[in-house]
Amino acid sequence: MVTEGGGDDSGGPEPDRNSGPDFPPEPDSDEKTGDSSEPETEDSDDWNETREPQSGLNSHNNGSVSDSRSRTSEKHFICSECKKAFGSIKKLKRHMLTHKSEKPFSCSECGKYFTTSGHLKTHRRCHTGEKPFSCLQCGKCFSIGGNLKRHMRCHTGEKPFSCSECGNCFTESGSLKRHVRCHTGAKPFSCSECGKCFTRNGDLKSHIRCHTV
């Protein structure tokens, strides 16, 4: 069951019903943690365009439900499916779409569908080539704000992701995830030809060449 994710604003993009182009990832041998991070969403008042039934929206406080512009820190808006709480009716409505797999916003270029107009707007940049987020240090531009934030760490030296086992720190969560495998011994990448398993996807790709030669 899908819920709204928190954490770094570069989380992975939402799944789509239709295949189509995606943002090119930053170079990485294992995970695609580059430009394919979760798109930024905008709080645009477009929810009247959706077919969201009001019966799916339960509230801990009935008086608060009617106030769609609530900005309090209290989370009175409860999802009837997973019981997750939200601070505004708008966020709850957006979350409910993930349970219904309803994606009313479609790309006119490739036909991909999205749950919010903000996700669609961000996706369209892969067609237009627009990169509105630029680094003030080196001028490099990005199509997604989260990718600019990650890029800035190469200038600041910030490493917010630390290993609980050995204390090593990393600039990206994907790098930490790969590192943790050296402690756990996990080998999630397996060869479909011989079944041999590897810790890194890059090692698997190198191994596969021995079957294709």
Automatic annotation (TrEMBL):
Protein name stated in the entry: C2H2-type domain-containing protein
Alphabetized GO MF terms: DNA binding; DNA-binding transcription factor activity, RNA polymerase II-specific; zinc ion binding
Cellular component GO terms, alphabetical: nucleus
Domain annotation C2H2-type: ranges: 77-104, 105-132, 133-160, 161-188, 189-213
The keyword Metal-binding appears for this protein: yes
Similarity field: Belongs to the krueppel C2H2-type zinc-finger protein family.
UniProt keyword terms in alphabetical order: DNA-binding, Metal-binding, Nucleus, Repeat, Transcription, Transcription regulation, Zinc, Zinc-finger
Residue ranges with Polar residues bias: 53-67
Acidic residues bias: start-end ranges: 37-47
Highest taxon in the source lineage: Eukaryota
